[in-house]
Amino acid sequence: MSLSHDHYMRYITFQTLEETLSFNAKGNYVIGKINRHATRLHQVPEKELAAMTGNELLLNVLETDYTLHPEQLAPLPPEHPLHRNESCTHFSQREIDFSLIRALAAPIIRKHRHAYKRGYPSGGALYPVEVFFVNLNHDSNDWPGSRNVLHLLPNSRNFEAHSPDINMADVTSAILPLNQEIGKPSAALVFFAYLPKALFKYKQRGYRLAAMEAGSMYMLVDLQCKALNLRSRPWSGFTDYQVTRALDLNPGLFIPLCIQFIG
After folding, report:
1. Predicted local distance difference test score (pLDDT) of residue 39
2. What is the pLDDT of residue 73?
3. Is 201 exposed, middle or buried, given 0-12, 13-18 or 19+ CB atoms closer than 10 A?
4. Which pLDDT score, from 0 to 100, does residue 33 have?
5. pLDDT digits (tens, 9 = 90+) for 15-52
6. CB under 8 Å to 23, separation ≥6 — which residues?
7. Whole-angstrom Cα distance, residue 179 to residue 166?
8. The pLDDT value given to residue 35
């Protein structure tokens, strides 16, 4: 069953929406061409940052020997299907056949013919996260039609051609970081929380559930990339409003949670 996106607005209060948007805004930042040289995300010295990165959190600081078992836990072997590849640090420009793009959607669409369950958990089966597939390799002729942005329809197991008013130069500028050391990914998945769908049942707690859902989704796509011999990288270094407006969405209802580069 499909419902119009504004159907959920009947059951959400302006106060709940406003409070959630205000909280989300506290985690946003703006980095543009004008202010990028004056913007700092933290004041942690490099030496301290190196010491505090990638560590485990030890809670029982009074114990000198906290090892409960003499033998270390064994990690997954590299050939195991749940052993993910490391996030890609630099993408080389390449064309990706659209059949591979379609295959990326397989873990996050409806699993069974006669049910709505998808390949990841969702609180209350609300599924408030909407995924947009973006073609960053504009010279590729393999994408269907003339649209470079496709909206995933998980229950229909299909794509919806997104707005014809999109300017791909604006989309690329919003999605790709100013620091081009990341290279040239071929595509991107943008995970949006549609707030009326996230909040109408669980109110503000639905925001947390939407974030959990997005994490489940990009991890499944990451593992699918390994199976398809593609590289992947989740990304959060973007300005919310810029991404939302570039994709012709309402920033008062849609908030981007994560971008995942594919190449």
Report:
1. 65
2. 84
3. middle
4. 67
5. 999 999 999 998 887 766 666 666 677 788 888 888 88
6. 204, 207
7. 23
8. 63
d(CA 222, CA 88): 11
Closest to 144 measured CA to CA, from 131, 157, 161: 161
Beta strands at 232-235 and 158-161: parallel, antiparallel or unpaired: unpaired
Parts of the chain with a pLDDT under 50: none
C-beta of residue 214 within 8 angstroms of C-beta of residue 194: no
Amino acid at 163: S
130: which strand partners? 192
Residue 88 has a CB neighbour count (10 Å cut-off) of 18
pTM (2 d.p.): 0.91
Please give the helix or strand (H or E) that residue 209 lies within, else none.
Answer: helix 205-227
Interatomic CA distance for residues 19 and 62, integer angstroms: 41
CA angle 142, 145, 151 (to 5 degrees): 95
Q: What is the pLDDT of residue 38?
A: 63
Residues shown for the chain:
263
Whose structure tokens read 């049942």? 201
